[in-house]
Amino acid sequence: MWLNIKTQMKKTFISAFALVAIAFASQTQVQAQSKMSMSGGTKMVGGAAMYPTKDIIDNAVNSKDHTTLVAAVKAAGLVETLKGAGPFTVFAPTNEAFNKLPKGTVATLVKPENKAALTKILTYHVIAGKMDSKAIAAAIKKGKGKAELTTVEGGKLWAWMEGKKLVMKDEKGGMSTVTIADVYQKNGVIHVVNSVLMPK
């Protein structure tokens, strides 16, 4: 009888060990797949993964740093546009970037009667085509140190490098720095910026 108990305990221990081993193997596989996903172009923005298989809007709505931008895009009626095939390059201001604007600016802009002005500002942050950091760097080199970019709004933006930082200048002389570059999307690429860019 004692032998049977020992045999049963041994079998139970082996089964438990097998379950732990399977669980560990599964966890390791998930971690490996996660790392592969990250290395495949997925970046973290605002505490959320930005998947290159999703469009600009479907990714942006998950970023806690871009709630103001998403609200503004909705107010301007640009959701369907930025969910389109594109491709688009978007310089995406963070909530902190919008907070730098004079008090009450955002609340005023999202009012229905100011839709045209809001649309003008938002489309000034968009460039037709997919311009990642390599493409912008090539444009900067071609422009002998400074690239002139034409926005969907029709205005101009200027870009250059200051050390390892990509810096943008708007038509009013305002400056903005790219804090996260090359956030690839299904329909383009996002560059996170720390100040709102303003057209004339």
UniProtKB/TrEMBL annotation:
Give TM segment ranges: none
Q: Which UniProt keywords apply?
A: Signal
One GO CC annotation, please?
A: extracellular space
Please list which residues make up the signal peptide: 1-32
> Mind telling me which SMART domains this protein's record contains?
FAS1 (SM00554)
Pinpoint the FAS1 domain residues. 53-197
Annotated PANTHER family: FI19380P1, PERIOSTIN-RELATED
The protein here is known as: Fasciclin
Q: Recite the lineage of the species.
A: Bacteria, Pseudomonadati, Bacteroidota, Sphingobacteriia, Sphingobacteriales
